[in-house]
Design brief:
Membrane topology (chain A): Multi-pass membrane protein
Pfam families (chain A): BPD_transp_1, BPD_transp_1_N
Shape of chain A: globular
InterPro entries (chain A): BPD_transp_1_N, MetI-like, MetI-like_sf
Largest interface: A-B, 50 and 47 residues
Order of helices and strands of chain A: HHHHHHHHHHH
Radius of gyration of chain A: 24 Å
Number of strands of chain A: 0
Protein name (chain A): ABC transporter permease
Strand content of chain B: under 5%
Structural class of chain A: mainly alpha
Mean pLDDT of chain B: 79
Keywords (chain A): Cell membrane, Membrane, Transmembrane, Transmembrane helix, Transport
Order of helices and strands of chain B: HHHHHHHHHH
Largest sheet of chain B: none
Radius of gyration of chain B: 22 Å
Low-confidence stretches of chain A: none
Number of strands of chain B: 0
Shape of chain B: elongated
Distance between the termini of chain B: 19 Å
Oligomer: heterodimer
Mean pLDDT of chain A: 80
Helix content of chain B: over 70%
Strand content of chain A: under 5%
């Protein structure tokens, strides 16, 4: 097991390096010096500017610049925000937990919808339940998150006045009251994301279960006299989950995209809204770092999927 | 079927609509601010009194144009990469597929935002604000959506190139290029067409998302996402402003997805009822 983990980790490193190369190339091709705000500032005398350029290594050949940039990123030296003048890593660490909480809970919601609905629909293909579920799933993943978000605000905040539509960090309450307020303000962003992903996954689950349920070993299990429930839960679902895990891992970039949009709509103070505000404020170090963090998160979840894959499918040996 | 009709109506609507509904998209009329639907303005007006129907029809042209253009970029890149991987030896194949997987793992929206943020201004200077942003958005959205097509094409190539009819063509002395272009590629196109259809929907969504975040086309061009972006601060007084463009995006994406699903059923030989 440890061996398998280590190998997976080693495979993840080239991907991370590849992504960092892409990021760096984008940055290097960009006109001007996105990092050298000070070097283009006209108030600074030219000789100081030249010294600055040299100290930042802006005149070195490109591969040297890449290596020094990468080592700085590795060491956790991510520079300072142009706007707020505090270290970028602090800024991100402040906001990362919120994003992870919102994404994590919404994915649990999505799974809680997709698994039962998808499995139930697949065990009764082309029944009324299946058709309704299918149609709703289609509607669900054709509705862009920014539109559902606005419609939710319109219904629950403006018309019904049940929920607040701006997320606040400082809630002046404690104990149960705090949790209740937290719940009220988080439920809309979580549901927007969760319903969207749930709709996509319902289709994955349904088609995966449908593929497995026709196989001979399922018929064998039935003919042994097992109840339909046992056959579905023990024999079908576990095997059907294998392709679903892959598809879910491939969806991670889309999940983060959705999170950026929802954070922006509901003003959730996560790294997604940090990205948008820093783009609007031309805060290059923050933009770069947030993009890199998103990339690392995607790789991490792919790694997690690989591990899950090994657990679901014993044919993949750990050694 | 129904979805095909709706999609065709939408496309014809945004193509021919501006010929019938001739109100200008940017006529400012402060006496008619934030009005709900009426005979004069069937979909109401925005905060400057501009007619929403005209703006939605205009925005639809851009959204659909971006969708189809980005799909073309994605399909061309995907087919080229997939064909190269499918025809080259195991080494080239492995390298190209590693790149494909790498692109699949990229966080697309943050990178889209980053690239547009970095390159927007310089491209604007070269070819003008509208064309520049159009080229940039199409290239970037297409550039992040070719991977599924490349995988499909590669898988098709790997199985097709061993088939008898390809061997027969090779025995007749057909060149490699001729083999690929005349014999293998046409047979590999079925799944590509399905993927391409879905890509149009995804590209429209991506463009609307960018505009909704305020980072797409310039503010004076009313794309559907931009209309939502402008409307989101006026939800309490004029919900119609956000609802109509949102519905337009939803209907378009939904009907394209349904058409794609129908095509998949029609083109999939393994279909079981």
């Amino acid at each position: 097991m440890a061996n398998y983990l280590l190998r997976r980790l080693l495979i993840a490193i080239p991907s991370l390096l590849g992504i960092s190369v892409i990021l760096f190339v984008v940055l290097a091709l960009a006109p001007g010096d996105p990092f050298g705000e000070l070097t283009t500032n006209p108030a600074i005398p030219p000789e100081v500017r030249a010294n600055l350029r040299a100290s930042l290594g802006l005149d070195d050949p490109i591969h040297l610049r890449y290596i020094s940039w990468l080592t700085a990123m590795m060491k956790g030296d991510w520079g300072y925000s142009f706007v707020s003048r505090i270290p970028v890593d602090q800024l991100i660490l402040q906001r990362l937990p919120t994003t992870l909480a919102v994404i994590g809970i919404s994915q649990i919601v999505a799974l809680a919808i997709a698994l039962p609905v998808g499995v139930y629909a697949a065990t009764r293909p082309y029944s009324i339940f299946d058709q309704v579920a299918n149609t709703l799933a289609f509607v669900g993943f054709s509705l862009p998150t920014f539109f559902t978000g606005l419609v939710f605000i319109l219904i629950f905040s403006i018309t019904l006045d049940w929920l607040p539509f701006v997320y606040r960090t400082g809630i002046d309450a404690s104990g149960w009251r705090w949790w209740w307020e937290q719940f009220r303000q988080s439920i809309m962003p979580i549901m927007v994301l969760g319903l969207f992903q749930g709709a996509t996954w319902t289709r994955f689950v349904r088609s995966a279960v449908l593929d497995v349920i026709r196989l001979d070993y399922v018929t064998t299990a039935r003919s042994k006299g097992l109840t339909e429930g046992t056959v579905t839960m023990k024999h079908v679902v576990r095997n059907a989950m294998i392709p679903v895990v892959t598809l879910v891992a491939l969806q991670m970039p889309a999940v983060f995209g959705g999170a950026i949009v929802t954070e922006q709509i509901f003003r959730v103070p996560g790294i997604g809204s940090l990205l948008i505000t820093s783009i609007l404020a031309n805060d290059t170090p923050v933009i770069m770092a947030v993009t890199f963090v998103f990339a690392a998160l995607v790789i991490f979840f792919n790694l997690l999927a690989d591990i899950l894959y090994g657990w679901l499918d014993p044919r993949i040996s750990y050694s | 079927m129904v979805s095909g009709v709706i999609l065709l109506t939408l496309i014809l609507g945004v193509l021919l609509g501006p010929l019938v509904w001739t109100l200008p998209i940017d006529e400012i009329d402060f006496s008619a601010r934030l009005q709900g639907p009426s005979w004069e303005h069937p979909l109401g007006t925005d905060d400057l009194g501009q007619d929403l129907l005209a703006r939605i029809l205009y925005g639809g042209r851009i959204s659909l144009a971006v969708g189809f253009a980005a799909m073309l970029v994605a399909v061309v890149v995907g087919v080229v990469v997939g064909a190269l991987a499918g025809m080259s030896g195991p080494r080239g194949d492995a390298a190209l597929m590693w790149v494909t997987d790498l692109f699949l793992a990229l966080p697309q929206l943050p990178l889209l935002l980053l690239i547009i943020y970095l390159f927007r201004d310089s491209l604007k200077e070269v070819v003008g604000p509208e064309v520049g942003v159009f080229i940039l958005i199409v290239a970037v959205i297409g550039g992040f959506r070719w991977m599924p097509v490349a995988r499909l094409v590669r898988a098709q190539f790997l199985s097709l190139r061993e088939k008898e009819f390809v061997e027969a063509a090779r025995a007749l002395g057909a060149s490699r290029t001729r083999l690929v272009v005349r014999h293998i590629l046409p047979n590999a196109l079925g799944p590509v067409i399905v993927a391409a259809t879905i890509d149009v929907a995804a590209a429209i969504l991506a463009e609307s998302t960018l505009s909704f975040l305020g980072l797409g086309f310039p503010p004076d061009i009313p794309t559907w996402g931009r209309l939502l972006f402008d409307a989101k601060d006026h939800l309490d007084f004029s919900p119609h402003w956000a609802l109509f463009p949102g519905l337009a995006i939803f209907l378009t994406v939904l009907s394209i997805n349904y058409v794609g699903d129908g095509l998949r059923d029609a083109l999939d030989p393994r279909r079981v009822q």
